[in-house]
Amino acid sequence: MERLNDNKDLKVQIEYCGVCDYGGHCLALANAIKNCTPNAKVLCKRGRQGSFEILINDKLVYSKLQTMALPDYEEVVNVVSNVSKGEEPKEIKGQQPINCAVS
Hints:
This protein is an alpha+beta fold and about 100 residues long. The chain has three helices and four strands. The longest helix has 14 residues, at about 25-35.
């Protein structure tokens, strides 16, 4: 059985909301992933309003549409790194703090 780290097809897809201007977040996360796991193919794709969905090898591991928060980037990078070593993709549970100001 072939392990994922022997396979060059480690794929990370990030669907982001263009209306919410999450493109920069997607690029920042993509760069962090590539710095730690150079063989990962990261695709940033403009998608549904409010979205920041992360799929690793076609498995949904994080959904902003469900959590209403952006993921913890460090945790995402660690999960991608672990997948490159042969582990199964795990759900991302960590979130970035929500900065909410009411004026």
